[in-house]
Design goal:
Blueprint: E1 2-7, H1 19-22, H2 27-40, E2 44-49, H3 53-66, E3 69-73, H4 82-91, E4 95-99, E5 121-124, H5 128-142
Parallel strand pairs: 1-2, 1-3, 3-4, 4-5
Helix pairs in contact: 2-5, 3-4
Bound molecules: 1,3,4-trihydroxy-5-OXO-cyclohexanecarboxylic acid (DQA).
């Protein structure tokens, strides 16, 4: 099984960025933890980050041929991007939405997700564990 993990805008800044909200874990540490989980589950995992909506859209399109699932933290694009939502629909690759913070307990503009309706589900509020739970959910639903 092949899973693609995509991190959206500003997630490359984890560790430095608003530690009171996002903690001090870095994106590299999250990726390493995901790789361990993937290896244990005999899954091949690729992790990528982009600050550009179009690049993420392209990667989601390309996932159609290569991946069985997408683990996606779209960052702020979660709340704004109809293009990402349409890309997930168009690609048809089962996608799990994850967030480090509990977006529903934050500013009202973060309460709505443009992508939630086209994802298998959403996991938010558990920091690094949101990604690990999301990966487990993807693997379990793809098997
Ligand atoms: C985030 C939540 C978003 O609202 C925010 O814009 C992010 C990170 C999270 O992981 O908690 O960049 O997706």
């Amino acid at each position: 099984m092949n899973i693609l993990c995509l991190h959206g805008p500003n997630l490359n800044m984890l560790g430095l960025r608003e530690p009171a909200i996002y903690g001090t874990v870095t994106m590299e540490e999250i990726n390493q933890a995901l790789q361990q989980e993937a290896t244990a589950g005999q899954v091949i995992l690729e992790c990528k980050q982009s600050n550009h909506e179009g690049e993420l859209v392209g990667w989601i399109h390309d996932a159609r041929q290569k991946f069985d699932g997408i683990l996606l933290n779209a960052g702020a694009l979660t709340h704004t991007s109809i293009a990402l939502r349409d890309a997930i629909s168009a690609a048809g690759v089962p996608t799990v939405e994850v967030h480090l913070s509990n977006i529903h307990a934050r500013e009202s503009f973060r309460h709505h997700s443009m992508i939630a309706a086209v994802c298998l589900g959403q996991i938010a509020g558990f920091g690094k564990q949101s990604y690990l739970l999301g990966l487990k959910a993807l693997i379990a639903s793809a098997r």
